Amino acid sequence: MAIRVLLVDDQPLLRTGFRMILEAEQDLAVVGEAGDGLQAIEQVRAMQPDVVLMDIRMPRMDGVEATRQITGPGKDGPAKVLVLTTFDLDEYVVEALRAGASGFLLKDAPATELVQAIRVVAAGEAMLAPSITRRLLDKYADHLPSGEEQVPDTLHTLTEREVEVLKLVARGLSNAEIAADLFVSETTVKTHVGHVLTKLGLRDRVQAAVYAYESGLVRPGAQ
Questions:
Q1: Where are the beta strands (DSSP E) in the chain?
Q2: Which UniProt keywords are listed (predicted)?
Q3: Fewest Cβ atoms nearer than 10 Å: which of 32, 79, 144, 153?
């Protein structure tokens, strides 16, 4: 079945461009459009999309609050949120990830990258592009923990191997890349990632990466 996509952006021309790109793919179907966060919430309830392509800065209700109401704590609906951003709005992206977004993508990304991102998010994975993540976190390095703060108690629930996996997730590595780095199978990595998310009460890899930086476990630019 086709992946059902809702387009949310306050610029009609951008929505039209996204629609043309997505409807050219046999496995994607645009089921609705919205020009602000309030409309997005209404459309999600009415259309039950699999993925919401969400702009951040919009009238009436921005994409962060809309994301929180669509996928935040206590929300069990199927919709995943993929945030569209430009680098001058990166601070909003961090808030959107905290609010429950499954990933973020630059507005000027190639069409093939947009299509692939939607497929990845629809499959339940997080869109955590290493290059974007590093630039985002480096830009806000001064606002992140120094690493000298007290380590959260929840981090102590992880095994040594799970901590290693969390650090690599925070660097944006895929399961296959982590498996190669640690000389284990990809299935083993998936198991470790699952344990990390469960023990820390996190939804996906994006939240795990944010947790790793905010807890001081990983610093921008660290290897």
A1: 3-8, 28-34, 51-54, 80-85, 103-106
A2: DNA-binding, Phosphoprotein, Transcription, Transcription regulation
A3: 153
Residue type, 112: T
**Exposed e or buried b per residue across 43-70, where buried means at least 16 C-beta atoms within 10 angstroms of its C-beta:** bbeebebbbbbbbbebeebbbbbbbbbb
As a whole number of angstroms, the distance between CA 68 and CA 84 comes to 15
**Paired sense of beta strands 51-54 and 103-106, if any:** unpaired
Tokens of 153: 């108690």
The two three-digit tokens of residue 8, written as one number? 């949310």
Give residue-wise pLDDT tens across range 184-199: 998 999 999 999 989 9
Burial class of residue 106, CB neighbours in 10 A (0-12, 13-18, 19+):
middle
